Fold:
Amino acid sequence: MNQPWLRTLRNRPLTWGLPLALLVVNLLVFSFYQVAYAGKVEALRSRFESDNEDLRKLSAQRREIEDYLSRVRTGRGDIHSLYLDHFQTADQRLTATLEEIESLGSAAGLNPTAFTYPLEELEELKLREMGITFGVEGTYEQLRRFINLLELSDQFMILRSISLNRAGKTGSPNPRLSVSLSAATLFVTDELAKATRAARAAEQTAANSEPDRDASPTSSVDPVADTEGVARAENADEDAAGEDAEVPADETI
Structure:
């Protein structure tokens, strides 16, 4: 006995033939894809994972470099502060240093005298080292307090040596001692101070003009290396000014 659905299938072959043909075509295409492209897909997947791993490594290296550059910028700022705010030039800080020694001596009940301060050029560092030698006379407690105040002073000074010149009477409860103290301090040269101020200004300008991106330290000026350039520029300006000015031939410029 024929079923109704069998008669429907025989009478309407397109109703089931077309979907079946599409299913067969899809199966053939899928089988071909599996055979022909499975290896490529796996290679792409492997490459994608490898690229992701490389990206993670490069990101870690970038963070390390950014941290290093940040430390470089911080270190350069500290050097600028050391040169301009602490060492300064001899014209800016020499008088203040000598006044500081006298003030600390007065605070300890002493009167530093006979100052000598020879100056030595440290050409490789673009610095000047000044030795400061002076004498004081007082009790042991006064001298100890004075030395302690020197070591705690905000002025950059290095206490090099202490020499006993004369001791008080033996057996005295508070013998007076006469000693010579030798200290030293450092100053920057005028050329280095100018180059450092220019470098600091350039970095501040770069930071203000590009607030969303850190300024590259390689674009800033190294004050020590640029000292010769500043000197050459100043000499060029002086030569140009000398050509424009009317100066007698026998007058020294």
Summary: The two ends are 131 Å apart (CA to CA). Strands lie at 113-116, 119-122, 127-139, 158-166, 176-188. Confidence is low (pLDDT under 50) at residues 213-220, 240-253.
